[in-house]
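Internal ticket #5521
Category: modeling
Description: The requester needs a full-assembly model to guide mutagenesis choices. All entity lines are attached below as received. Residue total reported by intake: 648.
Assigned to: D.W.
Attached entities:
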Amino acid sequence: MSADLRGIESHGVSRLPRYAKRLMNGWIRPAAKLTLKNETPVSVLVDGENSLGQVVAYRVMQRCIEKAKKSHLAFATVTNSNHIGIAGYYAMMALKEDMIGICMTNAWPLVVPTLGIEPILGTNPVAFAVPAKNELPFVLDMATSVIPIGKMEVYERHGKSVPVGWAIDENGDPALDTKTVMRCVYKTRRGGLLPLGGLEQTAGYKGYGLSLLVDILSGILSGAAYGASVGTPEDPRPSNIGQFIGAIDVNAFTQLDKFKERMDAMIRSVRGSNKTKGQDRIYMHGEKEWELEQQYRKNGIPLYFKVWENLRNLAQQLHLDFDL
Amino acid sequence: MSADLRGIESHGVSRLPRYAKRLMNGWIRPAAKLTLKNETPVSVLVDGENSLGQVVAYRVMQRCIEKAKKSHLAFATVTNSNHIGIAGYYAMMALKEDMIGICMTNAWPLVVPTLGIEPILGTNPVAFAVPAKNELPFVLDMATSVIPIGKMEVYERHGKSVPVGWAIDENGDPALDTKTVMRCVYKTRRGGLLPLGGLEQTAGYKGYGLSLLVDILSGILSGAAYGASVGTPEDPRPSNIGQFIGAIDVNAFTQLDKFKERMDAMIRSVRGSNKTKGQDRIYMHGEKEWELEQQYRKNGIPLYFKVWENLRNLAQQLHLDFDL
């Protein structure tokens, strides 16, 4: 719901049937507990015990915040977890405590490395949430690929063509329609999404490096799956997805109030700078999502018909009332 | 020298005349000490006292490593510092201790935010160094813009045209020659380098967000300059550049040796994956630089004639022997 409220429909209730299927098939353990291992005052290795990723990431961020209250900062690496929805949700949990929140997760492989043709990297998102004073918090929540696969699915539903620089096909040429991209990542497993930056000439190796960094902190450090070994949503094996989550108490470095005032000043100076022709606004990260949330809370969240239909079918299957 | 050895000529000895000028003019304090403030077992705010950035960042990383040995991890935010050369150098200091090293710095403004026309963001690099076992360490050292300005200077020297997606001119159109880019960033202060991802359609707002994140951790958190307020290399005011530096002891999370074995396996699986047509290699981050270093240590470092000439002139000015 939080994802839908923020306009990130690809990570919202549209995912519920997938989660439900995995739960019903026993591919995710609904009642599993988390196990904390190797805990120090500032770090913890968590075994998610194949629980729902949302539950795991929520509890782990709670733990990081508690620890950071005592020890100034705390980071967790998580093994044996699942899809967590939007990484930004967990990073934003730190905002209530006036802390900086961090969340990243690896994901099943859809992205090709620079000069490679096999999709062996996840879209591996990173999220950072930083409190401000009177301005909105800074919330960066981004896949380390040019676009997440969910955006491709949205383009598919709307029958839109794919811009150059988002994906390549089996021959390494630009993939210019959603059908080609879907074939590459789901069937032929050659070609796929490009890392942030696109091809080599426009520094795609940087997005490729950021994607690996997320995999290192989330997958390698925790002992979870990584790279090509992360299970697909349809894979009956546990996904064994890894996360890296953390909280930083600003007071460990400087006075919180001064920091927040400086955040406000920075945000205003960026937003107040000159725009390109035809543009009247420069957005801060998280601003568009916040505005959508205000609007949706007032008027309701628009759901694509197919999503609504899938939810209704799921409710029928589970003999639940469906009053939407 | 370390930058030149790694093939990053834009950040090597070619910068020496600039540093020397600032030192001779009293714009950098050569004998200044660092002041540690707000120190906790895992964090420290450092005032660089306008010392040479290289000295500041080196000492701060040493401090972080010492602290991480006792407290598992440690981060520093630095105010009143200067240009530090390559951020990767300091991140790589952690490798000797088998730790993960992190270094980021803000920089004078050359980069336009998404939908903006003013260059109010630095190229704000981030560097992460992660140890492996038998494979080379993973060393990601990247500007959060598509390219650093040094690359533009190299293109200028070679008379090469500028690819689409690297920079925009005063009208927001692609800047396709180095003269235009230099005019934008040095003179008209409209147009400039694009953040990683390029224009909005190819997710330039992600590079713009990463650039802000570096500014937040390096500039806002430390109390240094940030965004448009960072001094240019020719500005007689102290640059007041900020850094964010940290070290993470892998043992805080998992067994170091197992981690390094997993790093090796990951590196091999990425490098061993299928290549696009005409390519026979997929590179890991830091690999090209390591290979150049082996070659340069054996055969010497090639210097562009103009760089050599500038060094000779500097030596004459300072009445120093010049035997190169």
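Resolution: model delivered.
Comment from assignee: DSSP finds ten helices and nine strands in chain A.
Ticket closed.
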